[in-house]
Amino acid sequence: MRLVVGRIGRAHGIRGDVAVDVRTDDPESRFAPGSLLQTDSAGTGPLTVASARRHSGRLLVRFTGVGDRTAAEGLRGTTLLVESEDLPPVEDPDEFSDHELIGLRAETAEGAAVGTVADVLHNAQDVLVITRADGPEVLVPFVRDLVPEVDTGSGRLVIDPPPGLLELGG
Fold this sequence. Notes:
Shape: elongated
Largest sheet: 6 strands, antiparallel, barrel
Structural class: mainly beta
């Protein structure tokens, strides 16, 4: 699965630097010199990071082979991606990356099928978007009281919903 780590914005200066809208929690390793990033259009990439630095609160990145402002402007709007298999595992057993949760079967504590995790929303509280077999989506806050068990190895998670939660939206 390919994960978005950034989006290229406008060119900065005349030497090929671009501003990157960072979409990862680990920009230091994702944009480290030598890192290879896939792009949303195959004709643009992959791109290799030559250098990265912070400037006025923004991340400025220079890619190998992009040596001037014109070439940098040609990258504007490009989405930068990494393969989820290339990411190191999360060391905290209670933390999960979105790609580890998406696709898991959701079941109640009694073993009744609820649906499949389709997405993870990151607002004030992380929320699992579970698509039910009968169609409607159910939103379940991703907190231990409601999701007491996550077993990525077996491809499932257990939810303990309060009364009425699974009936909402359907």
